[in-house]
Design brief:
477 residues; alpha/beta; 20 strands; globular; binds NADP nicotinamide-adenine-dinucleotide phosphate
Length: 477
């Protein structure tokens, strides 16, 4: 942990960032590079930093995880403190952070899923993509979830890149995953998988599928797996043809070419198959105590190009399947003490300044998926966080209270409450331990997936060994 006490003519501003994912780190970077004396205190509910880059990016996409190298450099910049294993709303309140810091930036992402709102959605063997992705990535919240991969037929509702990840991890030969950082418990279950057929279901047409072409192509290249589409499903209306010719349509033309190639393929006996299905909207999940069927209704597209919606017809379609994943988009979770738009699942804002009705709430800011909704790639968060930090610095340049004590004050508060803090030094030790556990298996790391194990591995002393921030402060300053 870096505790900076440099005396400076201009007093440092103390900024708390809540959430240690990409948008939080890009906000920290923008602050630390701003040229102003700044102290950044990043507060994260898990002991581990890096958010979705650690627990959302699929294990077979290691290049995307290289963003961690950038975040690690930011974390090692003087003026940065990591408060891991501390939850805002439980261990410290928004009001307390407002009192201890000049500004608080919320970068908590979109931690839950949208709901389909249909009967049977919560039946056993119906899961969200978040649960499955968190499970195979070793997120402690999902460590003990169980997924019945003894089923032959699986349906995935949604046609975005998360659906592609869920599909690919089930469809790939398990041996191709052994050298990734996939959690060991997931590898064991995938190795026994009996899944033969995966239906990937979109409520609109092939031109409207949200996959990026790169991700879709990858699904077509899985060894031992036929990737199929029905030619009749690929007929396009005039509005979809118009969408295809738009020069800003980056993925539509590549995707439709791939779907057409998939429609010409035939499955070989004994192969796994991925089937892309279109114009089907979910109506119900049914089964005797657990999922046995997904009931859909055929849809037709209505509306102008780029605003076409799926209108249900009265033609029912059923898919017999023993396992369903809902991959229809993430949504943010409300934070006690912070305004929240429940319809959008985001915090209302203007230029990153948190809004309460029409008024901005001084000192409160938001960035990333909690600000704009769950869209874009990891790098999209950089521009988003730069905008928020520009607003924050502009506000503080008008003058700010000199009395804030930032990390020191929060540390005292947490110590009084007996809250253990997992700092960046703890994380570095855990990181080293994970890497060395992975080595004999040829994996980049073997993640610890339980919080107790993380604490033990990072201190070598077991659960009770996590330090209070106050004592860490004394040791390192
Ligand atoms: P997404 O791209 O928004 O896709 C959501 C899918 O769910 C769409 O097909 C959508 O269809 C469908 N859907 C929404 N509501 C539905 C409903 N009620 N019934 C049926 N279908 C419904 O979301 P995502 O896949 O969760 O991805 C989130 C973000 O992360 C995206 O920006 C994505 O690109 C990014 N990501 C990137 C990567 C990567 O780069 N490798 C990997 C994972 C995620 P409509 O279009 O009709 O709404």
């Amino acid at each position: 942990m870096h505790i900076v006490s440099a005396m400076s003519a201009i007093p440092a501003i103390h900024v708390a960032i809540v959430g240690a994912g990409p948008s939080g780190f890009y906000a920290a970077e923008a602050l630390l590079r701003s040229g102003r004396p700044v102290r950044v205190d990043m507060i994260e509910r898990l002991p581990t930093p890096f958010g979705l880059v650690r627990s959302g990016v699929a294990p077979d996409h290691p290049k995307l995880k290289q963003a961690i190298l950038v975040y690690d450099r930011i974390a090692r910049t003087p003026g940065f403190n990591f408060f891991g294993d501390v939850q805002v709303g439980r261990d410290v309140t928004v009001a307390e952070l407002r009192a201890t810091h000049h500004a608080v930036v919320f970068a908590c992402g979109a931690e839950t899923d949208r709901r389909m709102g249909i009967p049977g959605e919560d039946l056993p063997r119906s899961h969200t993509a978040t649960e499955f992705v968190g499970w195979f990535n070793g997120h402690p919240d999902y460590r003990d979830r169980t997924f019945d991969l003894g089923q032959e037929t699986v349906a995935i509702v949604g046609q975005g890149n998360v659906a592609a990840d869920v599909c690919r991890i089930m469809a790939k030969p398990v041996d191709e995953l052994r050298s990734t950082d996939i959690a060991e418990h997931a590898l064991d279950v995938l190795a026994r998988s009996l899944v033969r057929e995966i239906h990937v279901i979109g409520r609109r047409g092939p031109v409207q599928a949200k996959f990026t072409t790169k991700e879709l192509r990858e699904l077509g290249e899985i060894a031992g797996c036929a990737t199929l589409a029905d030619a009749a499903d690929l007929a396009l209306n005039a509005e979809s043809e118009t969408e295809l010719t738009d020069r800003n349509n980056l993925n539509g033309p590549g995707n439709i070419a791939l779907f057409r190639a998939f429609a010409a393929r035939k499955p070989a006996v004994g192969q796994r198959a991925i089937r892309f299905r279109f114009h089907l909207s979910p109506v119900a999940l049914v089964g005797d105590g657990q999922v046995e069927k997904l009931i859909l209704t055929r849809t037709r597209l209505e509306g102008p190009p780029f605003a076409q919606v799926a209108r249900p017809t009265d033609e029912p379609v059923k898919v017999d399947c023993g396992l369903v994943f809902r991959s229809i988009g993430y949504r943010g979770v409300a934070i006690p003490g912070l305004p929240f738009n429940d319809t959008l699942g985001t915090v209302p804002h203007t230029g990153g300044r948190v809004l309460d009705g029409a008024a901005t709430l001084p000192g409160l800011y938001v960035t990333g998926w909690l600000k704009r909704g769950p869209t874009g790639i990891i790098g999209t968060n950089r521009a988003d966080s730069v905008e928020t930090v520009e607003s924050l610095l502009a506000d503080l340049s008008k003058g700010c209270d000199r009395e804030k004590r930032g990390a020191e004050a929060v540390g005292e508060l947490l110590e009084r409450r007996g809250v253990r803090v997992f700092d960046y030094q703890n994380w570095s030790m855990l990181d080293t331990a994970e890497i060395s556990r992975g080595k004999p298996k040829g994996k980049p790391r073997e993640k610890f997936t339980r919080i107790d194990e993380m604490l033990a591995a990072s201190t070598g002393r077991g659960n009770e060994a996590g330090r209070f921030f106050g004592s860490a402060l004394e040791k390192t300053s």
